[in-house]
Amino acid sequence: MATALDSNKTKIARRVIEVFEFFASEQRRATVMDIVRRYDRPQSSTSELLGALVEMGLLYKDPQSRSYSPTPRLAAFGFAAQPEPIASGRLFAYMDRLAQTSRSGVGLFGIVGTHVQVFRWAQGADVPNGDLECGASMLLSASPVGLLLLSSLGLGPAGKMLWRLNAEAEPADRFNLAEANEAVARYGQAGYATGPSGLVPDTKVAAMLLPEAVGERRLALGVVYPATAAVDPDALRATLEHGVQNCLADGGDVSAPFVRSMMVI
């Protein structure tokens, strides 16, 4: 009985997060059926859940359109206890601006267990969305972003994690352990990683570690762009570093124009 109760609590928590992530994906309003179709959930329980969130002051309900939208209380929850430049919204504003001007996807990534997870995603016009959105994850060993984040743990812990991932992987999914450890060491020294994204088909990623002060655990900011795009990696790195520095600076200008020279077309 306890196991069934715990499972039910997990389902409820997951569905609450799904609602919040729906609005985080730039959807300003949603109906019950929008949520039902997006996550394949029962209509009755979804309506009940949204009603409860309205009673708690986290969502507004428009009685005419029967649509829901987030309240400022929900926004306050999102930024509560976060360090700068997340708390002020400057980092997220920069991500949105970068995605718009570069037409590339921009993600904020972190470690969750043995996976690299998308903590926030700003969609770019030239990158197919696919299954990549907030909450999407993949094994740390499967993407340069994951190896970059592993480097922040130190070579010893990173090596142990890679050994575990390789040992637990299916035969077809195993990787060259020596090469992965070398990549971790190289990325850790540079604080930057590039290569096939492993996130969206036919795309590449360029990512940098954010300073230790940004978040309780190290985070990475990455640009995901089409593999066919001609990109100047040095210019892209300079763009990311300049943008992050502006975000960290008190009163930094997150609307600064994107460095167009990253694309060599």
Overview of this structure, please?
The structure is a single chain. The chain has helices at 2-24, 32-39, 43-55, 72-79, 90-102, 144-151, 155-168, 177-190, 233-248, and strands at residues 59-62, 67-70, 105-112, 115-122, 137-139, 192-196, 203-209, 220-226. It is globular and about 60 Å long. It is of the alpha+beta class. Helix content is 44%, strand content 17%. Helix 2 (32-39) crosses helix 3, helix 6 packs across helix 8 (177-190) and helix 7 runs antiparallel to helix 8. The longest helix is centred in the first third of the chain and has 23 residues, at 2-24. A hairpin with a 2-residue loop joins strand 3 (105-112) and strand 4. The protein has 9 helices and 8 strands. Mean pLDDT is 87; it is low at 256-261. Strands 5-4-3-8-7-6 form a 6-stranded antiparallel β-sheet, with helices on both faces. Strands 1-2 form a two-stranded antiparallel ribbon.
How would you summarize what this structure contains?
The chain is of the alpha+beta class. The chain is built from 9 helices and 8 strands. A hairpin with a 4-residue loop joins strand 1 and strand 2.
| Radius of gyration, taken over Cα atoms and rounded to an integer in Å | 20 Å
| Average pLDDT number | 87
Q: What is the overall number of helices?
A: 9
How far apart lie the N and C ends? 62 Å
Structural class: alpha+beta
SS strand fraction? 15-25%
What kind of sheet is the major sheet?
A: 6 strands, antiparallel
Strand tally is 8
Helix content: 40-55%
Taking pLDDT < 50 over at least 5 consecutive residues as the criterion, the unreliable ranges are 256-261
Instruction: Provide the spatial order of strands within the biggest beta sheet.
Output: 5-4-3-8-7-6
Strand/helix succession: HHHEEHHEEEHHHEEEH
